[in-house]
Amino acid sequence: MRITATLVAETPIYRGNARKTLFTRDGDGKQRLVSLAGEIEGTAQSLMDAFIGSSRNGRNIGLLHRLWRRLYGEKIPNGLIRRVRCSLKSDSYPADRFFDLRMGIKLDEDRWAVEANANYKYETIFRNARFDFSMEVNDKLLSQGDNRAKLYYMLNELAAGRFWFGAGKSKGLGRLRLEWEIPEETPPPPIQPEANHLSITLRFDARNPVLVGWNWGKIDPNLPAFAAVEGRVLVESMRTLPVEVRQRLSMVLGGPILTADDWKRKLADYLPRVLAVHLREHSQGERQTWTLSAAGLAKLSKGKYALSKKVLAAVKPFIDQPFESREAMQSALEEALGDKANMAKRIVKTSKSAAEKVLTLDERIWEEWQEVFGFDEQVKERVTQALGDEAALIEVFREAVQPVLPRLYEQVDQQIKLSQSDAWVDQELETRRAHLKIKQMLLSRQIGEDQWGDRRNPPKGISQTHWQEFLKAHERVSYRHMTAPRNLEKSIVNDQNFIRFLQGYRNKTRQELAQPYNTDYRAGGPGRREISQKYGKPYDTVFMRMLSWAPSREGNGAWEAYIPGSTLKGAFRKRAAQVLKTLWGENRRTQEALDALFGAQGRIGRILFSDAYLMDPATPQDVWCSMDGVKMDPRTGRPIESAKADYLFAYGQDLVFQCRLDMQDITPEEEAVLGILAHLLNDVQRGDVVVGGAKTDGFGWIEAEIQELTWLSGASQGELTRRLFGEAALQPNGIWYALHLEGEEAARTVSAWSKPIAGAGTVVPAKPQRTAQGFISHRSFGGFSGMLFVGVEVLTPLAVRESGAPSFQTVLEGEPVNGWDFFSLTPPHPEKRPENRQYAIPSKSLKGMLRHIYSIVSDSKEPSRSLQKLNPVDHLFGFVGQGPNQALMGRLAFSFGLFEAPEMRWYKVPYPYGDWQYTSGGWQRVPDQGAKISQVDKTWRLFPHTPLAPVVQPQETFAPDTAQAAYFRAVEPGSQARFSLRFWNLEEEELQRLVWSLALEERLAHKMGQRRYLGFGSLRLRILPESYLIDWSARYAGKPESAWQKPFDPARWHNPKVIYHYRALKDLLHADAI
């Protein structure tokens, strides 16, 4: 019997060597065809995944064999499944037959920052791709005993999506689902009572902002722009153009380009031509017509039944007149003949048909073009009239496309800028090309056995560095095996494919990053007053995305935002490691628990994490929010232009992610491990498991909810089922007994599994752990940890500019004038911002303000040179040094400061205003003098608290009267905001300084935002009563919140003795003047 079906990739799939990148190709790799291995065979059989078969040593067996043994407790009958084939369907291939690239990083446990040279790259088959699956079964064996039923229910496991193939199963890869025409259901056979499957679905929205950064688009300004740019890449990035138009443009503009301006001129010239030619080709057709001829009518005027002269006269005007059909002709003749209408049918019989070539506007194409180019009815009328004249039609289009060209030029400029991005790709390609050349020289015997292994004797044309790298990578391979033609030829093809894949994938990422929804707004034009994407670049960090399969005319897949399973797994593992090492110490017990849950080298973790996908993948790209960050010069208080960064992140309840955690065959002995998972799930529901990047800026502290839980057991009741679910009744479901819980009931059930993992004797270190390099580690908790909730009171108008384009714009005296709203958690595009906005103080602004004060109170005057020589502020807030492994994440995480119904007002500030100075208790204008600067120890500038300068003019609305002024909306005094500050592993002195930096002292205040010099931005912060310190042993000992959340008394931590420059700070931060 032959079973045929379709296997759907519910997640991306990787099949290949974990140290390589490319998905394993069929045959010699030249056709780039891919499949999932049917049977274990070849040189890597001890490690490979396949559906059936076994390795020579018997330690690795096929996945279907494993599943059969797992379910039924016996070996699958030998020869029952004769052959399995699983090839990717032809319509699931992209045009170049290369797929997505999934990249992962490893975070150093102490630094909680990227570890150099510990990343991985997999070419993964697209999510939603489909495979042709066939299985040949031995009919004789199938008919024996329960084999038919057992095979049926085993395949049902695949149909239920409980089957994984390939590498990375525990981090989001390899889940497959079988689609087949289910034969008649048979009674289920008994299965192993200890077999089970636990599936937990988590759901979380982005009300706590999330930023999982994409690894692409990092621009190196030191690289030359405009290097090796092809017109084809520029055209492909213009996704708003119809596919057919892009294809034609690529044919004429696809080669290397000389200059951007030259190529833009060619685009402006060829686009109207392409439109005209394409439209004329699709507007040509044939029309069948019917006509009366004079000769035919003359025949009817003769003979016995000749037509009368009166009838002939009535019909004569219709000679040679075309009709669409005989019926139309007959109707016209009947009307003309009047009482002789009965003659019409006889006359029509003499008519003859002919095919006539016509040009008729293709309405389908025109409808698409109207949407893309914005053509109106007047253009349509002119195009219709010019269809017969190609030259005239080109001129019509030349005029009509003028409004669209600037947008296309912007995309060209973006692609040019992106030619400076991702320099690591060029370095990797250079190395791979050198290795390819070495292999080709080995194949042609240009490298002899005497030279092989000699690191000091590189072949001609190969650098010593590349030669040594190659030899190191192949140090265990003999010359005879290295030069075996078959393997060497396949290795050469693999290298060629890798080079094409990486080049092509980088082009795809650049095209995606050049899209308007990924492009920031920058100032440009005269006086840099115009804010536009045409001066912009891709955001420094955009949200992670992958290519998933979505059939289209281009056949390249579609970009989809997601959170990798590896990111989720890493977040859970990090939290588990911190908690267990805190409570149990760094010992075998801790490591065994971590390895059991998350895996180790050669051991897959018990938890299979899926990716987190948007529940609505069609969510528009332009709903994502943006935030700008800029480093301030501590001496001047001015922004450092070269240190600007911007982010495009997920925020809001409409962006909802969903992921799944699976565990199979849990044993009663693993109940404790399951309890650790329950603690982690409790933590992620509280928002204590952080996902993604920019953690210290408040991103990624998600609050997930357990959406549903499914428990499948091979027995209706069992010891483990009773322990986990009490007396809950399991219902028969095929071969399983099932329990399905949702929402609160599922959450309560999981929470009950979290037995205490800290005992009465558990002691948390009073001081945080330090590394050999001297900095405080993130590997466990110690010292002081907790959460501060901080109230913000605005004392003078606060101006923090919104991110992206200004919400209000006009033109005065021929110059653009911008009206900036206050910062809000909204998209960067003004037309996408809601009327009711969530106004907020950016987390980076709060962090920067407090970092500045902390640098003063800790006397962090000397810059940090390395991790071994950190100043106090970098040690606490984080540090990024030069070279690999020189980054350290901070031990503070700031949330956004959210306002609730703030009072707002418009202000106008004419410029320049530097000659205004606040002296002797009042503002005075002092011509020919610069702005007055107040500094602490000639190192840190502080802006005194003052009333607004007289030059500041309140406004009722945005109503500019001059271009020589700034217009913005500020939050008025009395408005209240609130933010949280999470801290961990602080020493006593650090916490004392942090508390002083936050709360200051009576009559002192903070300053932040724009126009601080003119009196804007005075704030007072207050640590709120709900703040707390964490008692880690009590938290994980099963005690209530009131027991482990220790009240935080700010007065207990007020210690001016640890504050450097105390007197200068009191003098400069006093707020008596306001």
Can you walk me through this structure?
The chain has 1074 residues and is of the alpha+beta class. It folds into six domains: 2-191, no CATH class; 231-285 and 360-418, no CATH class; 293-350, no CATH class; 423-540; 559-752, no CATH class; 784-842 and 895-1053, no CATH class. 30% of the residues lie in helices and 22% in strands. It contains 29 helices and 43 strands. Strands 8, 13, 14, 17, 18, 19, 20, 21, 22 and 23 form a ten-stranded antiparallel sheet that branches. Strands 24, 27, 30, 31, 39, 40, 41, 42 and 43 form a nine-stranded antiparallel sheet that branches. Helix 12 (377-386) runs antiparallel to helix 13. The chain is globular, with a radius of gyration of 36 Å.
What would you say about this model in short?
Helices cover 30% and strands 22% of the residues. It contains 29 helices and 43 strands.
SSE map:
Blueprint: E1 2-9, H1 63-72, E2 81-88, E3 100-104, E4 120-124, E5 130-137, H2 139-142, H3 147-159, E6 163-164, E7 175-179, E8 196-210, H4 231-236, H5 243-253, H6 260-283, E9 284-291, H7 294-300, H8 309-315, H9 326-337, H10 344-348, E10 352-359, H11 363-373, H12 377-386, H13 390-400, H14 405-418, H15 423-443, H16 464-473, H17 479-482, H18 485-513, E11 522-524, E12 530-532, E13 545-548, E14 558-563, H19 565-583, H20 588-598, E15 599-600, E16 603-604, E17 608-609, E18 612-614, E19 625-632, E20 639-664, H21 671-686, E21 705-713, H22 719-725, E22 731-733, E23 736-742, H23 743-752, E24 784-794, E25 808-812, E26 815-820, E27 840-841, H24 843-857, H25 872-877, E28 878-880, E29 887-889, E30 892-894, E31 897-899, E32 904-910, E33 916-919, E34 922-925, E35 935-936, E36 940-941, E37 953-955, E38 965-971, E39 976-986, H26 988-999, E40 1006-1007, E41 1018-1023, E42 1028-1030, H27 1032-1035, H28 1041-1044, E43 1045-1047, H29 1062-1069
Parallel strand pairs: 26-38
Antiparallel strand pairs: 1-5, 1-7, 2-5, 3-4, 6-7, 8-20, 8-21, 9-10, 11-12, 13-14, 14-18, 15-16, 17-20, 18-20, 19-20, 21-23, 22-23, 24-39, 24-41, 24-42, 25-26, 27-31, 28-29, 30-39, 31-39, 32-37, 32-38, 33-34, 35-36, 40-41, 42-43
Helix pairs in contact: 5-6, 6-13, 12-13, 15-18, 19-20, 21-23, 24-26
